[in-house]
Amino acid sequence: MSRPQEQVVDATQLPSYAFGNRSLMWWGTFGMMAIEGMVFALACIVYFYVRTRVDEWPPDALPPELVWGTANTLLMLLSLVPNEWTKRAAEAEDLPKVRIGMWICVGFGTAFLLLRTLEFTALNVRWDTNAYGSAVWMLLALHTIHVATDFWDTTVLAVLMMQDRIEGKRYVDVSENGMYWYFVVLAWLPIYAIIYFGARVH
Amino acid sequence: MSRDIPVGRGEPSPDENGKLERAWGTPPGLVGWLSSIDHKVIGYRFIVTAMAFFAAGGILAALMRLQLAVPENSLIGPDLYNQIFTMHGTTMMFLFAVPVMQAMGVYLVPLMVGTRNIAFPRLNAYAYWIYLFGGLMIYTAFALDIGPDAGWFSYPPLAGPEFSPGKRVDFWAQLITFTEVSGLLTSIVLITTILKLRAPGMTLDRMPLFVWAILVTSFMIMFAMPAIMFASTGLITDRLVGTHFYNPAEGGDAMLWQHLFWFFGHPEVYIIFIPALGFISSIIATFARRPVFGYPVLVLSMIATGFLGFGLWVHHMFATDAPELGKSFFTAASMIIAIPTALQIFCWITTLWNGRLNFRVPLLFVLAFFFILVIGGLTGIMLASGPLDLQVHDTYFVVAHLHYVLIGGAVFPLFGAFYYWFPKITGRMLNERLGRWNFWLFFIGFNVTFFPMHHLGLYGMPRRVYTYPANVGWSDLNAVATLGAVVIAVSMLLFLVNVIRSYRSGARSPHDPWSAPTLEWATASPPPVYNFARIPIVASREPLWGPSGIVGRVDGLSMDPPENLVTCVLDAAPDHRSVYPRPGIWPFLSAVATTVLFVGSIFTPWAIVWGAVPVAIALTAWFWPGKDEIDEHLALERKP
């Protein structure tokens, strides 16, 4: 019996990068989002758990002021427009548009962090007042870490995209950075609802 | 070996080989050593480190057995004893059991799926260093008499600021951060490797069962470990900055800790157990010399176990005031999980029944697994029932049960795996005679140590007591248990001797000393730095059994800079090439910076702010591409 013809895949004919869930970077980002999403979910559960432990809610505190949190939420939703625009520009490998889009996103990130600082001053409760305060601060602090790291990632990538010679896989990085931005904004929506309206709705 | 190794047909020339070694290998010197990102180097270090912690945890266990050998013993005082049992449990669960399973995955998975290196190799190196530094931190604290002393599950209020002042529990809480960051990152690395880097033709239903086991485990880690990270963060903030998560006086609840801890802690048992199932399936196929019976049943059982494992946590809390209806649910769920485990055991029995058995040491360890795990499983069914659990809660009955399940379910298969894969990792065989001594002494010593503990528990001996009076009837069984521990210690010593002797002068191993079916045996022992000179194209579940298992090869991947093949998730069709990063020092330096942040935060919360600066700098430097690197990559670039 003769051996069947040996198959040969010629890898030189294959592309050297790919977008979306074809890329390794998508899977790495997806893994981080799954883990961090789980952490957020647990933080939300803890909020409702401690809520069952007391009769009055919020205990010994006024609900957080709505103004900065709501302003930040609206701004985050608005940022999805330049984020999507940049993501598409990256997938089309349109460098000038990517550069503009990245810096717009950096600008939004800066604004988020400034508003977030104001949010912390308007919670009407300290982390060490009671378990309610601890849960609220934990939720806000966890999300702030994500805003801060996403801001830093985006800034580093924006600077990198200003170089003369850009590898194709950098566009994949920009595209995945856009996906992660969606995660940071969309994860905020339930957290916003819980922090600001969990203390108002009975 | 006369058998044709198909991949060998693509052997590189010596010239090519040198190029590959330079492109993929570990650079010389200390900095080079710290810069390595080869999954085999990292996996090997991971395994050795985990085994060193296993030895440390074992010595602590031996000390406890010596203390308990006779009643009213004064060898170890209560304070040190508290630290010792806490360190023993913490070491075995967080520094040995999970890391060693992931470490085996890091070493073996890329070889088994036929790829040249793991996905995100720098992240993999970073995860290793974080794990090592966390372990060194907790042992340094222990050596300075600030080792944790509130038990491996650190229940508040005992572990809270009021009853555990000082830094002991803070070190414990940060150890959790270290080990879980490492475990979570490694799970991302493994999932991506398994789903995206399989050799062409290795569809999901041709994946080796060990690879399936690691995939299921990695997903479980992703969803279980965040719970313990969150819990320990809440504990440390309660202790350091005055939050009240677990403080009932201010609206918190100590039960919240138990829920969060066991939402992690029960899946943890399966995170340790499922990789062992993968070892067993690999070893049984090879030593029964036939494909494992019921491949789809085994895969689905592991996935089912992965899901059900998340629905059992309250069975650790039957002695609390959790709602009775809830407890009944968790009793039922705890019994249901016996079904997929039983299905797997029946599949293996069928395989063995129809096989031509080759009674070598790896198979002995697997057969011992059946014996020990079944006993552990039976006491598990007993403990799953709330009323019985309440009677033996916090007694030696539970200690006996958990050691039967964990040592029988995971450590015995792990030792089998060491005997099985040692030739692949080192190029030399472990000594068979010493191996049999190692096995029998371990098997007998284990049962002599732990079987009497069932009785001690039923006679009412509580866990975590540093001594007991002479007149309560526990003395004889404790003496027997200590005798058994001495036998285990001798067996472990023999294992160590065997490893060291065989590593130096054991019989040389060919590619495939066991005539095994999976791809890791297609390459040399030890494998070259690039694993496979030519990535094979596979066409069956047992690619090395039969002439049509490997049907071709992948050509045209760059040697230098190193390139790898990325394939599609389901059918593993070739999709694109991916350039690999070169070895670099930044993952190591990033881990050092992260360690400073984590350890610093035990002493001041501001460390999180100031410590973040060096971490950000190191991570940015890690990400930043060099000029030459960009040129090299552009030369290879081809748009999608």
Describe the structure.
The complex is a heterodimer of chains A (202) and B (640). By secondary structure, chain A is mostly helical. Chain A has a single domain (21-197), classed as Up-down Bundle (Four Helix Bundle (Hemerythrin (Met), subunit A)). Chain A contains five helices and one strand; from the N terminus they run βααααα. In chain A, helix 1 packs antiparallel against helix 4 and helix 1 runs parallel beside helix 5 (168-197). Chain B starts with 13 loop residues before the first helix and ends with a helix. In chain B, helix 3 packs parallel to helix 5 and helix 9 (295-308) runs antiparallel to helix 11. The longest helix of chain B has 36 residues, at 78-113. The radius of gyration of chain B is 25 Å and the shape is globular. Residues 1-9 of chain B have low confidence and may be disordered. In chain B, strand 3 (563-567) and strand 4 (574-579) form a beta hairpin. In chain B, the strands form two sheets. Chain B has a two-stranded antiparallel sheet with strand order 1-2. Chain B is built from 20 helices and four strands. Chain B is mostly helical and 640 residues long. The interface between A and B is large, with 57 and 72 residues.
